[in-house]
C-alpha cells in the first residue's frame, strides 16, 4: 500500500503539474489531436496484453515457461500491431480530416513495441507485491517524460511535444524495469501453457477492447462531428475528473487484485475485505469529486487560464459520472479472480449494447446530451456489474448502495455548503475562492463524518496512526 501510494501520488502530482504547464503552452486543439488516436492506442494495447497478465497473477504455480511464453507472445504481437497502425495511419487521418495524424500515429505507435518488453516484468512485480521496484522506475520515467514534454512545448514543437513525452516515458520505464527486476525471458514458447493463459485472457482481452471502444466512443463522435478544440475541452475535463478517481482506486486496484486472488476461495473473507475497501474509496472519492465540481470555474481559470473555461460544464457533469467508477472496477475484479472471464465478457457485451443505445438517444442533444448520457449509463452499469459478484459474495447491488448511501448524503450536504460559500465569494480572486470553499467543504464533511461515526473515516484515521483495528479482516492486515 505504501509503495503503491508513493507511485500513484508521485506520478499524478508530476503529471498534473506538467498538464498545467502544457495547457498554458499548447492549444486545446493540439490536445484534441492526441485524443483522436486514443482509441486506436488503447485497442492496440489491449490486443498486445490479451489479458495474459491477469492470468499469470491468478496462476498459483506460474514458472519460467509461463512467463517466457507470455513475453514472446506480447513482443510478437506488438510488432504486428505496430505494422497495422503504420498502414492504417492515413485512413485514421482521413476519417478525422487531420493530415498531421499520419505522422502522429506512426510515431506514437512505437510505444507498443517499447512497452511489450515490460509487460511480464510488471506482472511479476504485481504478483509478488513488489511495488517498490515498479515505483522507482515509474517515478523516474515520469520525471524524464515531463522534462521532454515541457521543453519541447516551450521550444514550439506543438502537438509533437505530447508524442515525444509519451515515448520518452515508455522508453525510460522499460530500461529501468529491465535492469532492476532481475528477471529475463527464455527463448521458448510453450503451446500448452499459451492455450491455458489465452483461454482465460482472451475473454479479458475482448472485454478490454469492448471497454476501450465504447469508452472512446465519445472521443470519436466529438472528434468527428465537432472541432478539435471541443475534443480538447472534453479530454481536459475528463482527465481532470480521472485524477482523483484513478489515483485512489488505482492504488487499491494494484494491491487488491492479488489480494482478492489470494483469498478467492473464502467468500466470507472476500466479502468482508471487498466491503471495507469499497466504503473507504467512496468515502474519499465522492467528496473530492463533488468539491472539485462545485468549484470548477475558479479551479479551471486558476490552473489552465481563461481559454479552458469552456470545459467547465463538461467537467461538472463528468464528476457525477465518476463517483461510481471504483464500484464498477471492484465488482468486475471479483469475477476475474473467480476465474469467470466468461461472465466478465458477457457483462461487457450487455453494457456495450446499452451504451450504444444511450449514445444514440443522447447524440441529438449535442455534447452536453452525450455527457449527461454518461451519468445515466454509469448508474445503470452499476446494477449490471454487481449482478454476478453480488451472487458470489451474497452482497447485492442494493446492499452496496445502502452501505455507501450515508457518504453520498453527507457529500450532497457538503456540496450545498460549498456552493453557498462560492456564491458569496463571487468576484473574489480565484485562489481565495478555492482555499475558502475547499476548506469549508472538507471541514464540514470531516466534522459530520466524525459526529455520525462513519466507519470508513475511523478506519482511515487508524491507518494514519498505524493502528489497525482488530475488526479488520486478517488478509487485509497482512497485505497492508
Report how far the terminal alpha carbons are from each other: 6 Å
Q: State the secondary-structure class.
A: mainly alpha
Report the principal-axis shape.
globular
Total count of strands? 0
**Main sheet characteristics:** none
Count of discrete structural domains: 2
Order of helices and strands: HHHHHHHHHHHHHHHHHHHHHHH
Strand content: under 5%
What does the average pLDDT come to? 84
Rounded to an integer in angstroms, the radius of gyration calculated over CA atoms is: 22 Å
Q: How many helices?
A: 23
Low-confidence stretches: 467-480
Q: Determine the fraction of residues in helical runs and give it as a percent range.
A: over 70%
SSE blueprint:
Blueprint: H1 2-25, H2 28-36, H3 38-49, H4 52-58, H5 64-96, H6 101-108, H7 110-116, H8 119-127, H9 131-154, H10 160-180, H11 191-215, H12 217-225, H13 228-262, H14 267-294, H15 296-304, H16 312-322, H17 325-337, H18 341-362, H19 366-393, H20 397-424, H21 430-451, H22 455-464, H23 474-479
Walk me through what this model shows:
With 480 residues, the protein is an all-alpha fold. The protein folds into 2 domains: 1-209, Orthogonal Bundle (Tetracycline Repressor, domain 2), CATH 1.10.357; 216-480, no CATH class. It contains 23 helices and no strands. It has helices at 2-25, 28-36, 38-49, 52-58, 64-96, 101-108, 110-116, 119-127, 131-154, 160-180, 191-215, 217-225, 228-262, 267-294, 296-304, 312-322, 325-337, 341-362, 366-393, 397-424, 430-451, 455-464, 474-479. Helix 5 runs parallel beside helix 11 and helix 13 (228-262) packs across helix 17. The chain starts with a helix and ends with a helix.
Amino acid at each position: 500500500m505504501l509503495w503503491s501510494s508513493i507511485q500513484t501520488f508521485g506520478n499524478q502530482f508530476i503529471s498534473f503539474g506538467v498538464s498545467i504547464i502544457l495547457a498554458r503552452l499548447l492549444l486545446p486543439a493540439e490536445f484534441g489531436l492526441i485524443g483522436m488516436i486514443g482509441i486506436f492506442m488503447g485497442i492496440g494495447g489491449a490486443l498486445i496484453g490479451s489479458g495474459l497478465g491477469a492470468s499469470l497473477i491468478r496462476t498459483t504455480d506460474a514458472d519460467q515457461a509461463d512467463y517466457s511464453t507470455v513475453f514472446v507472445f506480447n513482443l510478437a504481437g506488438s510488432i504486428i500491431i505496430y505494422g497495422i497502425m503504420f498502414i492504417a495511419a492515413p485512413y485514421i487521418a482521413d476519417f478525422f480530416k487531420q493530415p498531421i495524424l499520419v505522422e502522429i500515429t506512426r510515431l506514437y505507435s512505437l510505444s507498443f513495441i517499447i512497452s511489450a518488453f515490460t509487460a511480464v516484468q510488471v506482472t511479476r512485480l504485481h504478483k509478488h507485491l513488489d511495488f517498490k521496484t515498479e515505483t522507482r522506475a515509474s517515478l523516474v520515467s515520469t520525471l524524464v517524460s515531463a522534462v521532454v514534454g515541457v521543453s519541447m512545448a516551450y521550444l514550439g514543437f506543438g502537438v509533437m511535444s505530447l508524442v515525444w513525452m509519451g515515448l520518452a516515458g515508455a522508453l525510460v520505464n522499460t530500461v529501468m524495469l529491465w535492469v532492476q527486476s532481475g528477471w529475463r525471458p527464455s527463448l521458448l514458447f510453450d503451446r500448452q501453457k499459451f492455450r491455458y493463459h489465452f483461454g482465460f485472457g482472451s475473454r479479458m482481452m475482448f472485454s478490454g477492447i469492448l471497454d476501450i471502444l465504447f469508452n472512446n466512443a465519445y472521443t470519436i463522435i466529438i472528434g468527428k462531428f465537432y472541432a478539435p478544440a471541443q475534443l480538447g475541452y472534453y479530454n481536459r475535463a475528463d482527465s481532470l475528473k480521472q485524477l482523483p478517481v484513478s489515483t485512489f482506486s488505482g492504488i487499491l486496484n494494484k494491491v487488491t487484485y492479488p489480494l482478492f486472488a489470494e483469498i478467492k476461495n473464502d467468500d466470507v473473507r472476500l466479502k468482508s475485505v471487498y466491503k471495507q475497501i469499497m466504503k473507504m474509496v467512496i468515502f474519499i472519492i465522492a467528496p473530492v469529486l463533488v468539491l472539485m465540481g462545485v468549484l470548477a470555474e475558479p479551479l479551471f481559470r486558476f490552473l489552465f487560464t481563461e481559454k479552458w473555461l469552456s470545459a467547465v460544464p463538461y467537467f461538472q457533469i463528468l464528476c457525477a459520472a465518476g463517483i461510481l467508477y471504483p464500484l464498477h472496477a471492484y465488482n468486475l475484479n471479483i469475477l476475474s479472480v473467480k476465474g469467470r472471464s466468461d461472465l466478465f465478457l458477457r457483462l461487457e457485451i450487455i453494457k456495450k449494447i446499452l451504451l450504444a443505445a444511450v449514445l444514440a438517444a443522447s447524440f441529438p442533444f449535442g455534447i452536453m446530451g452525450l455527457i449527461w448520457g454518461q451519468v445515466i449509463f454509469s448508474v445503470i452499469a452499476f446494477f449490471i456489474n454487481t449482478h454476478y459478484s453480488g451472487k458470489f459474495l451474497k452482497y447485492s447491488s442494493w446492499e452496496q448502495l445502502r452501505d455507501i448511501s450515508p457518504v453520498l448524503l453527507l457529500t450532497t450536504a457538503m456540496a450545498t455548503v460549498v456552493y453557498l460559500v462560492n456564491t458569496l465569494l463571487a468576484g473574489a480572486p480565484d485562489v481565495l475562492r478555492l482555499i475558502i470553499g475547499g476548506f469549508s467543504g472538507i471541514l464540514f464533511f470531516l466534522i459530520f463524518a466524525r459526529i455520525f461515526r462513519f466507519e470508513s473515516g475511523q478506519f482511515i484515521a487508524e491507518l494514519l496512526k498505524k493502528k489497525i483495528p482488530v475488526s479488520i479482516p486478517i488478509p487485509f492486515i497482512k497485505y497492508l
